From TrEMBL:
<dbReference type="InterPro" id="IPR001647">
    <property type="entry name" value="HTH_TetR"/>
</dbReference>
<dbReference type="InterPro" id="IPR050624">
    <property type="entry name" value="HTH-type_Tx_Regulator"/>
</dbReference>
<feature type="DNA-binding region" description="H-T-H motif">
    <location>
        <begin position="29"/>
        <end position="48"/>
    </location>
</feature>
<keyword id="KW-0238">DNA-binding</keyword>
<dbReference type="InterPro" id="IPR054422">
    <property type="entry name" value="TetR-like_HI_0893_C"/>
</dbReference>
<protein>
    <submittedName>
        <fullName>TetR/AcrR family transcriptional regulator</fullName>
    </submittedName>
</protein>
<dbReference type="Pfam" id="PF00440">
    <property type="entry name" value="TetR_N"/>
</dbReference>
<dbReference type="InterPro" id="IPR009057">
    <property type="entry name" value="Homeodomain-like_sf"/>
</dbReference>
<dbReference type="GO" id="GO:0003677">
    <property type="term" value="F:DNA binding"/>
</dbReference>
<feature type="domain" description="HTH tetR-type">
    <location>
        <begin position="6"/>
        <end position="66"/>
    </location>
</feature>
<dbReference type="Pfam" id="PF22604">
    <property type="entry name" value="TetR_HI_0893_C"/>
</dbReference>
<dbReference type="InterPro" id="IPR023772">
    <property type="entry name" value="DNA-bd_HTH_TetR-type_CS"/>
</dbReference>
Amino acid sequence: MRHKDDNKNEAITQATIELLNEVGFSEISMSKIAKRAKVSAATIYVYFENKEDMLGKMYLNVKEKLSQRMSHGINESTPVKLAFELIMRNLMAFNLDNKAYFMFLEQFSTSPLIDKLQLGGSVSLFNPLFELVEKGRTEKILKPVNTLFILSFCYFPITQLAKACINGQLEINEKYLNEVIQMSWDAVKA
């Protein structure tokens, strides 16, 4: 039995994400990934059962990194408005610091694979955000609407701003970020 090597696993992950961002899901193959990662195709199967297993595990891994970053600096005593702002700032930082991950998540979220692989369970990674919204509704700081509606106003404006920055349509600055955060806050506050 071959032993797993963290460096090879990371090389496979990085190669896969790079290739997906370059050629998309339909054009990716295990042989292309192996070549980019500088490992044999057989090595990939030491780490993953098949391509779908590999993609699903990578998606969950990146989502976990995203959820940790979004929640960074927030605890039970953080005021709701400040936590809301931190979530958005953390999300923007994650997207801009990890462009390949961001592009991978964007591609994956619109792919039929997300349903096929039944990866909806990744929502539990974001429980601290759900708890924050519940706290905000209980304290009558946030509108008494569906939690996903409120979180959408945190997530989607920032992802659209990050896309514009990555595509060279806009240069992010503190003024723009503050404006988006304020507009989002105005939309969800009670």
